[in-house]
Every structure is written in C-alpha cells, then in structure tokens.
Queue: 2 jobs
Job 1
Amino acid sequence: MTTSLPKHDWILHAYFDGELEPSEKMLVEQELAKDHDARVALEAWRRQNEALQQAFGPVMSEPLPSSISAALAARPAVVRRWFVPAAAVAAVLAILAGAYVVYITLASGTAGGKVFADTALSAHVVYSAEVRHPVEVAAAEKEHLATWLSKRLGHKIEPPDLSRQGFELVGGRLLHEDRKPAAQFMYEDAGKRRLTVYVAANSTSRETSFRLQEKLGYTTCYWLDEDSGYAVVASELKSDELLPLARIIYESFEKQEG
Amino acid sequence: MDFRSEIASLIPHLRRFARALAGDASLADDLVQDCIERALRKQHLFDETRNLKTWLFTILRNLYISGLRRSAHETAAKSGSGMGVSDDAIMPEQESRLALSDIALALDRLPSAQREVLLLIALEDLSYREVAEITGVPVGTVMSRLSRARGGLRAILDDSDATSLRRIK
C-alpha cells in the first residue's frame, strides 16, 4: 500500500474505522495509553461522526418525494419499447400476440448482437495482426486520441486503463459501422497478447447483458447499452480471463458516461 | 427479494449520502431519482455476485461528479470574459447556508474528492475497500483522502468557532 501518510496516522484511522485485525487493535490500544495527541484526534473524529449523524440521519426518515417513488415504480424503457405495442395487440389476440412479440424480441436481439460482435471481431482480426501500423494514433498521444474519437462518436470516450491488469494501451483508430463512426482501442500485454475494445452506436434498439462468443479461436465479450455497443476481443485469452477485463472496461465507460 | 425492492430498501441510505454530498435537498433527491432510473435501466449489467449497495453508491457518485463537471462548464461559459467568474455560483449558496449546521458548512468547504470519501466511511459506514471500489482509486488513496478530510474538518470547525467568537465580541 503506497501512501504519503506517516504510518502512525493511517493506523489510527484504520483503528478508528474498525479496519484492523484484533491483534493490531491491541497494539494500537497499548500505544494510545501513552499518546495524548492520538487520543485527542480520536475524540475529534468521534465528534465529527456524531455531528454528521445528527445533521444527516433525519434525512433517512423524511417522507419520500413522489418523484423518487415514481422512478422506482416506472417500468424500464427497454421493456416498454417492446411490450406496450404488444399489449395493444394482445387486447385482440391475447396470448398468441404476446408469444409472437416475445419471439421477435428474442430473435432480433440475438441477431443484432451477433452482427455487432462479428464486426468487432473482423476489426480485431484485421488490425491486431499489424506489426508496423496497428493503430492510427499511438498511446503517446492518448489525450488527442480521446478528444478526436469523442468528437467523431459524438460522446465522451476515453480508452479504459487496463495497466493494473497487465495490458498497456497501444493506441486507437477510427472505424465505421452502419455509416456511423466507430472506435477501436488496442492493448497489449508483456507477452505481446493483443486485446481490442470496440465501441459503436447501438443500432439494434435493444440492450443486452454481457454475452460471450468464441469463434475462429477468438473470444469476444460484448454488451449493448442504450446508445452504444461495446465489444472486447482477444485471440489468446479464454472467456474466464476476458470476462473480468470486460467488467473493468464496462465500469470505466459507465463512469465516463456519468 | 427482487431487484426493485432491494433498491427500495437502500433509498434512505442513498438519500442521506446524496444530501450530505450535494448539500442541497432538492438537488440531492434529483440525484437519487436519476440514480434509481439509471439502476433500473442498467439492471441487466449488474453483477449479482456483487454488492447492490456499492453499485448504487457508485452510480449516484458518478452522477454527482458529472453534474459538477457540467455546472463548472456552464459557469465558465457564462462568465465569458473572466470578470467576476464565480459571483453567480457563490451568492445563492451563501444565502442557503444560513440554515445549515456547522458540520454541513464545513463539509461544503472540503474538496469533493475528500468529502465523498469521508461521507462514505464516517456517515455510511462502508469499508475502505468498498470506498476504493466506488471512487475508483486504490485503498491507499482512500486513506490519505480520509486523513486529509478529517484534518481539514477539524481545522475548519476550529476556525469557524474562532470566527463566531470574534463576531460576538
């Protein structure tokens, strides 16, 4: 754990917040008996906590504003998009119509997602094999890369940081999907294994959770969000290695979306 | 318990955190509303092996941060020439401060990176690890922010005691 704090100080915080093992706790308590300043600090923090609880605790029992209860009761947009028309039809054709809509939803959703995953896969196959020109803008110009692609895609997009997982950014390029701009980021680990992240507009009017596809020796993990589709492709990673990376990438894009 | 009822059970916590983070009651409840809407839309992306509480706090915190960024842009755009940059932003805030307790005032003066860490730990009783996950920084950074926040709060509160004494005199 790297921290600029003196060891003494953060141990005291950890003690106060109940983060220590029983044995460590005992040691701190022995020290405390001899350390007047530390006892004063603990007392000040205890008063801070108390003041916070007193100031904001009552918020928890305030009556819920109707805007919040309404948000909680609302049906999610995805479901509404498909099932409201179905309900109208169902008035006439009850069960038959309902079943048909469900069938269409499933069929088109799967197909749309698969097409998206295949596009991401093609882009990976073509560009990850490049030795001299794998990317248009290299990682050295990361800020320019992010600004440029954000401008073209029409929303903020930054390459996720995967360095803690051992993958360094190589760079990125502008691509196209369905007549719209799309982006690809490329990463490489110490063993020269390459991974690409593909982002394009979601043209399927459908959202999906994480889906995995193994094809031609490549593993693709993709998900379709409200406006965008995302895919992570790698050739030498199995799905159990790729999925945790995909989650980190998902969270990173979530944060950028705000 | 289904997803919706689980969210419902956490709303009091979300509201408390949002209120302390944003300072303003209606802004805080807007954040909670946006957070719930977003969580329901993104339900398909929630990893069920993970903690729903930390997931919701993460969403709310990110909404707050991107709101801050947006209003910073708007303020910058409005002030144009650079004259009187923050006059608009500060005046109404100071008025509404009259009704707030000392601790809320002190919180308001902390940098938001320190404020969120302090609130998640001291008010919401989350672990350092959970807070690291929510704010997307290493545990060491959480601890140094926490330490600075507690130190800052002490300094501000002591200072304001001194100021109010001076005022009385």
Job 2
Amino acid sequence: MNPNPIAILLQTALLLLLAPLITGCIRSWKARLQNRRGPRIGQPYFDLRKFLRKDMVISEHASWVFSAAPYVVFITALLVGLMVPMVTTQAPLSLFGGILAVVGLLALGRFFLALGGLDPGSAFGGMGSSREMTIAAIAEPALMLAIFTVAITVGSTDLSHMVAAAQQPGWNLFNPTHLMAFAALFIVLLAETGRVPIDNPATHLELTMIHEAMLLEYSGRYLALMEWGASIKQLVLMAILANIFLPVGLATDGSAAMLGLGLAVFLGKILLLSAAVVLVETVNAKLRLFRVPDLLSAAFVLAAMALLSTFLFK
Amino acid sequence: MELTSATLLSATFLGYVLGAAAGLTCLCHERLAKGLAFGLATLASACGLLAGGLYLTNSAASGPVPIQLLPMLVPYLSFSVRVDPLSAFFLMVVSAVGLAISIYSLGYARGFYGRKNVGLLGAFYNVLLLATTLVFTADNAFFFLMVWEIMALTAYCLVSFEHEEAEARRAGVLFFVMSHIGTGCIMLGFLLLFQASGGYGFAGFHALGDKMSPGSRDAAFLLFLAGFGIKSGIVPLHTWLPAAHPVAPSNVSAFLSGVLIKTGIYGMARVFFDFLPAAAGPPMWWGVTVLALGTISAVLGVLYALMQHDLKRLLAYHSIENIGIILMGFGASLMFLHTGHPLLASLALVAGLYHTINHAVFKALLFLGAGAVLHATHTRDMERMGGLAKRMPQTAFCFLVGAVAISALPPLNGFVSEWLTYQSLLQGYGTTDSLLRLMFPVGGALLALTGALAAACFVKAFGITFLAQPRSESAAQAHEVSPAMLVGQGLFVAMCVFLGLFPTQFIRLLDPLTQLLIGQQISGQLTVANGLVLSGLNQNGGTVSTLGIAVVGLCLLSLPFLLRVVFARGTKVRIGSTWDCGLQGLTPRMEYTATGFSKPIRMIFKALFRPRREVQREYDFSPYFTTGIRFEARVEEVFETRIYRPLNRWVLWASRRTRALQAGSIQAYLIYIFITLLLLLLFALK
C-alpha cells in the first residue's frame, strides 16, 4: 500500500517513454487510414528532442504565470499517471489519491494551461482557453457520473481497488452497466484529449482550434513540456478506461515474468484503444462548437442510464 | 484550562468594545482612529482564535464554558455566553478571518483618508465583529436575536457606507428588508421551541425533538431553514447577497462573504443537529430538502457568477455556490441520521463544516485581493483591468492561490472538503433502498459540474484581471499595495495551504463537535498512515493525501530541470511580441474580454440566462465599412424578474388596498373599535 520508490521510478519512466509512442501511433495510423503516408511512429520523440534544443521566444506581455504553466501541466500529468494502475494492479501512488484526485489534478493542469493561453494577450489564446474550460465543464458531470457508477459497484474511489474488484470472477464487461459507462467515458476521453469530433489536434492557426490555440505562443522547452504533458494525459486516460473495464493481464506481484506479461497486455490494450480513436477520428467530421454540448450530454445520459441499470440488472 | 478559554474570550469581547470606542472617540484623528480601531480588532481576534483553538484541543471534554456578561435584569433574558464545541469552531472561523482582515484594514483604510470617516468605519467594523462573535456564542434565544439584529444593522451601515452612490443605498435597503424577513422567521421558530421547552436558554433547547409534536417540529424546521437560509443566501433567497456584498468597502465585503453568511450556517447546524433532533432521527424529507437546495444553490450560484464582469459581484455569486456545497454536506448528514448511519452522518457534517472554514478563508482572501485591485485601479469592472500580474505580483500570487483553492483543485483546501463531500455522497448510495439514493450520485455529478464551472470562472477572473495587457489607463498605472494589505492576504494564503496539506490535524479538532451533535468521533476513522493520509471512512473507500501529492510533485519538478541540463544547455530565451496575424502590433482591444470568455457557457445555458443583445451599427455606404457600433448584452436574472418583481408588485398592491382602511376619519376608527369589541365579546361568550 505504501508508495514504493522503485515502482514510482519505473512507472514514471514508462509514462515518459510510452506516451509519445501512442501519440505517434495514432498520427501515423490515421494518416494510413486516410491514404496519406504520414509521419513515422517515432516522430513525436524527435519533435520533443527538437523542441528541447530550440531557443525560446516569450511574449513581451506574458507574466510569470506563462512560465509556470508548462511545469504544472507536465507535473500534474505525471502525478496522475502515478495514481493509475498500468502494468500492475497496484498503482505506485494509489495511497495518495484515487479517481477523485486524478480528476482534480487534471483540472489543475487544465487551469494553468488555460491561464497560459490567456497570458500573452492574443485573441487565439483567449478563445482556446474559453472553449477548453467550457468543454471541460460540460464533460465533467458525465465523467463523474460514469466514475460514480463504477465506484458504487466497487465501493471505492481507489483505482487500484477498482481494478482489483474488476478481476473478481463476477465481473463482466458485457454487463450493460459497464458497456454504457464505458461508452460515456470514451466520449469524455475524446473531449479531454482534444480528439476529432470535439477538437482537431492537427490544426494550426484556424478559428476552430482549442488545445493548439492555447499553445500558440509556447516554443522551445516549454512547448516540449506542454506536448509531452498532453501525451501523458492521453495515455493515462486510456489506461483508466482500459484497465477498469478490461482488467485482464495486470501483474499482481513484482516478479519479472508477471511484469513482462503485464506490460505486453497493457500495450496491446492501449494500442487497441488508440485504433478505436483513429477510427472515430477518421469517420467523423469535427463538430461545430455549439454541437459539442449535445455529444457530451449524450455521454451524460449514457452515464445516467448506466447508473439506473445498476437497479435493473442486479 | 477552562479559565484560559474564558479569559481569552472575555478579552476578545473587551478588545472589540474598546476598538469600537476608540474609533468613535478619535473621529477627528484619522490615523489614530485607524490604528487603534483595527489594531485592537487584530488583538481581539487573535485572542478569539486562541480561545476557540484551546477549547477544542484541551477542554472540550470537560463541558461547555459559560460566561455571564451582564446580570439578568428581565425574566427570560440573560446576557450569557457559552462556548461549546460548535460555538468554538465558529469562534475560530470568525477570529481567524477577522485577524487577517484587521491587519489588511490597517493598510486598506488609508484609502478613505479625507474622503470618508475612518473612525466610524473602524467603530462599525469592531461592532460587527463583536456582534458576530456573540451570535456564535450566545446562550439564550433573546440574547441571540438581539446580537443577530445588531449584526444585521451594523452590516447594513457598512453596506451603505459609501452612501453617495445610489447602488450602495439600494443594496443596503434590499439587504435590510430581506434580513428582517429572515429575523421574523427565526423569531417564530424560537417561539415554537419555547413552547416545548418553557425557557429561552439554549441548554434547555437541546434535543427537543421528542417533546414537540411532529407538526410543530416540521414547522420549526421550515421557519429556521427560511430564516437562516436568507442570511446565508441560498437560492432562491439569495438576491440581496450579490447586490450587498460588492458595494461595501472591500475589507467588509471579505468579512460579509467569509463570515457573516456563515451565521446562517451556524444557525442551521445549531438548530438541525442540536435543538431539533429526536430519538428517531429527522424525517427523510428534511435531508432531501437541504441536499436539493444545496445542489441547486451550488449550480445556479456558479452559473450566475460566470456571467459577471464586476469582480466583486462575481465573488459574491460564488458565495452562493459555496453555501450550496456546505448545505450538500448538511443535507446528506441529515439523511444519514434518518437512515441510522451516525458515522456517515458525522463524515458528511465534517465535510460541510470543513467547507465552511475553507470558504471563509479563501473567499476572504479573494475579496481582499479584489480590494487591492480596486485600490490600485479604482474600478471593479474586469473589462478595464489586465496586466496586473506584472504590476502587482504579490497580490496576483495571493489571488491565484485563492482561485486554485476555490476551484477545488489539489493540493489546496477546497479540494479536501469537496473530496470529503464526494466520499459521503458516494457511500451514502448504500444507505437506503429507495429511489432517493439516486440523489447522491446525481448530486455528485452536479458537484462536479459546479467545480468545473468554478474553475472556468476563476480562469476568467484571474486571467482577465491579472494577465495580458492592461485594458485601461488606470490598470496600466497600477502599483503594488501596502505591506499591511499584503500581510493580511499572506496570512490567508498560509491558512489555505495549512488547511489543504494537513487536513487530518484539523479534523481532529472537530471530534468534540461531532461527539456533541451526533455522538460519534470520527477523526480516527478518517486518518491512516500516521495522520498524513485522509481516508474515506473504511480504508477501502478511498484515500487521499494532499501532502503526499505536493511532496511527490515537488520531487518530480526535478525532471524538467534534468531535461533542461541534458538537452537544453546553451539555449537562449528571447522576448518577442505576441503573434498578431501580421497586423501592426497587438493592442489591448484585441484581447479576449470577460464577456467573450463566458460566451460559450452563456450560449449553452441560454434557457436559463435568456441572453439578449442589441447591436446598432452605423456605416457609410456598405455594412462592411462600419463607422460606429453600439453593443449591449444582458442576461436575465430569472429569480428577480420571475419571482421578486411580481411579489413586490403584489405587496405594493395589497398595501394600497389596506390603505383604504386608514382613511383618517375618527368615525371610521370608532367603528373599527366597536366591531373589534363586539367580536371579542362574542369570542369570549362562546
């Protein structure tokens, strides 16, 4: 139960190294699916190294908040990653916080990201911040209700307990409650990671951009921290989805064989989920901003139905 | 030890009285009056803080501390004060907040030199603190109502302190009227309690529920809910709050929003958990009502807050939101008492009380920050601010801490109390089999909505006020405020950090309180790992450690620096201009505004806001070449237009009708008297 320094270090390394790969896979597969050649899978690593080595240009209007934001975004993403079980059933920092802390820390990162967008005084940044906070606000109830549904059936907000409970024999993914909660969380995942029906990660300097608009004034190592933080956040949200609803193959102890198997299964699940994201991104067009609430309320309704179905299918 | 709390408390009262007297005697010496009045208030509130803290840590087990302030002159009316754990907790709240605000006022009151009477301000301020402290400690219903009235009247004087402005006068009157409707309800409630107990002493009111008929018990519940609800500003009784709090001087606004509305919370805690409980527990609908009202207040409070661009008005609306969150805890607690889960009831009550002190601290901090901004820029309109983070860095930092805390973000204090609220809601799901249990997860989801909207609102409040370029000349000329004002804000920052990082230490102080009200001590169940980790009742339910998060976060901070050493050695930082799409430089007029920032939310919730906008364009030969534009946007305050205005019209109509009775003719009055006499005789004959 107590935090284990070695586990913390290993999971931090996993987060840092795996996150850009997932981003790279999604980009590359999406390009293939759209009959483009696209970048290679390892491109995000090269991008990060390039950003780290570049000089920085900081806006004359920006204050210390602008410089603090990348650190907060990066650190909160890592902290959240340490609270989520990935390869083992026991997350290194599960004692320090469960799903409520995860949601809170992600919100903290977003808070500073949005402030960083406002600070240089560009209208793009303000627009991005405003939209990001709005979408997060309407995604939050759906997220929380879906989480509550799972937490109520398990009786805990601790992610490690949730995963452990999901490994019990009575658990069934194809139980309607779980299917609906999964669907709701998948929509929230798309919103939180800025994926296509809600935001387009491939746009630059367009009036539709949200996440990119806030990063517009960032360059050099701050940009690297921001991009890396966003990748880690994406990985973590996927891990939550994958491990809570499909908890097979997680290592229950620290033996090398178990860990190896756990890592392989985890990679498989995450890549599967990435493929689903790619598919959704390819077959959907980006929604108008004011249609996004409809999608997110659909997620809320799904979560509410998941909750109600706990009565029906008991 | 008992003596110490009592002595300290007497010193507190004495300090406030002396402070008020000093303010009044030195009316002509501004500097002296300011120093004496606020200096004495600082000392008095420090004594009060110590008294409350000492009582809760040491002598709570040995029973309440009674003090007789004046001899009993009139039957039933004794001027007695009694400190029990609930009083001691609120004594700590008022004193801690009073302490930091008093220090801040030492600097802030200078802004009134030569303009307003600072001695009078100091005197009113001391009386307000005194009356509020007495409200929290009064031991007799009569005495309680007296100090309650003194508090309301002083607050009225302070709200309309800057009475040259029509806005302040109007807000003052609204506050005055609403406050007295509330007092009327509370009086009726006390009369019902008197019927059952035969006295006005609070000790005699304890656990009266079984002696009252269910009907009068329910009536007392509703009367107190309405009376204290008006004071704390729950929806739909809130309309006075966003009008009154912004117009007062900022140090007073901080006190009004931080502490004064908590007198309503104190009253509810006192009545619902001390006076009205019966052996069988409260009826289910009490808890359901309070939880529902709390949820509605939380969501509507934050939604209206988002629409404001007056910084202090925005903060005032957030008070409604936070009162709602406190009441969610109270409501859940009442529901658990009904279903017979005292431990869970304690958890929910602790969540509510923890949020009470948290809100007092961060809301006062934010109002002090707003006061500093107002002091520096002479405007409350956020659309005319901007760029203050560079000009007032310390104030900006303090405000940012408050903003993070109120948005319930870890690792600060707002997160802890909301975490406790979530835990109690989550575990409440299993307490009943009825459909009512759906209220818990739905309440949780709406709490999440509230939290996320609050974060959006404070990104706006901080971002538009402090970041980017200044939007007006006065904002560009702003400078950092005086050290006393910074110390006051700094104290609150320290409190936010302490309450955020060391929750288990604080919850231990609440043990005597839950023991008194519910008969359960809870800190043992909430603490694991040497008190560094907070746990939701059973350890499997979930744990959180804000301290752990902060420490690990700081350790992880070495990573970016490591990256910098490895990869970014020798890179340079250039200062450049923001990308302006190739125009000739970026001006403040191109920045996002507060109104623009909240537009998406206004559009999404347009059924509630009913936004209206009016645009008038002038152009020469084609609409594409506009020469002048006038833009006006409004949102509808539903409660005001749909409830209060019709009610107001109806009251005026009814009073016009009754005026006909008072025609001024002696004959008519004689007839009235005769008819009354006849009716009374008939009544007596029967």
